[in-house]
């Protein structure tokens, strides 16, 4: 059974860069898309972007000029970078696995609370 | 403002049922399958329904999903106290080329 385990800095100052990594344990890494999703306090979910095992990313246009997602297939890891953060980026960030057939987000990481505060 | 529209809350006594609606548009629900996620307090979302009405193994058949046009619904029958959670609908959006989500519905068992 696949497990996603994520980590990264939880407290940032405005203008700093958010950096999170998600490790995938179990299951195939190459047969899925790997996603990042965030949830602001008391709010709904927002898709940030995804990447496939070949390293081809897709990003939410609202974040496109600040976000990058990368993959390391040798370690079965994928990572998120979000530059120039502001308080509006304070959220719980989740990594998740997306299937390409009968599309769904079928496994999620435990979530990382990232707080942006001066 | 979420792209998919859900009621903020739903409730019912133990043993009764509730239905949660999810309204979208032709670029998301109208074209692509809907999935539903259950989020218990303080935990990550968990896949509950996919491909509009399929249940992953381990999800009780008290949970069922349906879709018609640009709307979808999640029905929970025989409410139990452990069903108290937030429920989110989601679909791939062809205009965004990404996922869109509902704002979530908090289900309370009275």
Break the fold down into its secondary structure elements and pairings.
The complex is a heterodimer of chains A (118) and B (110).
Chain A: E1 3-8, E2 11-12, E3 18-25, E4 33-39, E5 45-52, E6 57-59, E7 67-72, E8 77-82, E9 91-99, E10 104-108, E11 112-116
Parallel strand pairs in A: 2-11
Antiparallel strand pairs in A: 1-3, 3-8, 4-5, 4-9, 5-6, 7-8, 9-10, 9-11
Chain B: E1 9-12, E2 18-23, E3 34-39, E4 46-49, E5 63-68, E6 71-76, E7 85-93, E8 98-101, E9 105-109
Parallel strand pairs in B: 1-9
Antiparallel strand pairs in B: 2-6, 3-4, 3-7, 5-6, 7-8, 7-9
Describe what this molecule looks like in 3D:
The complex is a heterodimer of chains A (118) and B (110). Chain A is mostly beta strands and 118 residues long. Helices cover 0% and strands 55% of the residues of chain A. In chain A, the strands form two sheets. In chain A, strands 2, 4, 5, 6, 9, 10 and 11 form a seven-stranded mixed sheet that branches. Chain A has a four-stranded antiparallel sheet with strand order 1-3-8-7, with no helix packed on it. In chain A, a hairpin with a 4-residue loop joins β5 (45-52) and β6. Chain A starts with a strand and ends with a strand. The model of chain A has no long low-confidence stretch (mean pLDDT 94). Chain B is an all-beta fold and 110 residues long. Chain B has no helices and nine strands. Chain B has strands at residues 9-12, 18-23, 34-39, 46-49, 63-68, 71-76, 85-93, 98-101, 105-109. The chains are: A mainly beta (118), B mainly beta (110). At the A-B interface, β5 and β10 of A face β7 and β8 of B.
Question: Which key terms come to mind for this protein?
Answer:
heterodimer, A: 118 residues, mainly beta, seven-stranded mixed beta sheet, four-stranded antiparallel beta sheet, globular, B: 110 residues, six-stranded mixed beta sheet, three-stranded antiparallel beta sheet, 9 strands, 0% helix
Summed up:
The complex is a heterodimer of chains A (118) and B (110). Chain A is mainly beta and 118 residues long.
């Amino acid at each position: 059974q696949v497990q996603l385990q994520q980590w990264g800095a939880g407290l940032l100052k405005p203008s700093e860069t958010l950096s999170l990594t998600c490790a995938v344990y179990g299951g195939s890494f190459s047969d899925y898309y790997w996603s990042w999703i965030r949830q602001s306090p008391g709010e709904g979910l927002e898709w940030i972007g995804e990447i496939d095992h070949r390293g081809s990313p897709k990003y939410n246009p609202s974040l496109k000029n600040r976000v990058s997602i990368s993959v390391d297939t040798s370690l079965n890891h994928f990572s998120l970078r979000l530059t120039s953060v502001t308080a509006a980026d304070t959220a719980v960030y989740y990594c998740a696995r997306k299937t390409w057939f009968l599309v769904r987000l079928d496994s999620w990481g435990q979530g990382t609370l990232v707080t942006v505060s001066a | 403002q979420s792209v998919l529209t859900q009621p903020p809350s739903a409730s019912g006594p133990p043993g009764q049922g509730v239905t949660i609606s999810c309204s979208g548009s032709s670029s998301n629900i109208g074209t692509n399958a809907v999935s539903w996620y259950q989020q218990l307090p303080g935990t990550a979302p968990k896949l509950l329904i996919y491909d509009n009405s399929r249940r992953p193994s381990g999800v009780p058949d008290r949970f069922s999903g349906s879709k018609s046009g640009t709307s979808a619904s999640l029905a929970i029958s025989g409410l139990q106290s452990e069903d108290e959670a937030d429920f989110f609908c989601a679909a791939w959006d062809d205009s965004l080329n990404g996922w869109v989500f509902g704002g979530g519905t908090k289900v309370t068992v009275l």
